[in-house]
Give the backbone structure.
Amino acid sequence: MGARVGVLRGVVSRILAGVALLLLAAHFFRAGSIPLTVVLALLTALLFVRAEWAARVLQAVLALGALEWLRTAWVFAAARAAQGQPYGRLLAILGAVAVVTAVAALLLSPPPVRNPRQFR
């Protein structure tokens, strides 16, 4: 049973990370930053690399991506507020995207190794 949970966690974490990376790529594409778009799209290939360094690179990129979503939310909300437009829904949506991106980074961490002796 534990092995299945581990496999499922790995699959879900990779899917979530892939979606988060592609959302970031779309964000930068819309902003006109083609080099960043290409880099983020290419980084999805690291989801298939089992090496520890690949997971750490993806975690760092996703953590920076979550910060980028928060920065974007701040900039867009400030612009809308300056124009007297509502911005609550914008903050909720971009905040949720930032949280999902951060969770994707956290899920790429290896599960903690439990010492079987501690449960005796």
In short: The mean pLDDT is 91. The CA atoms of residues 23 and 58 lie 14 Å apart.
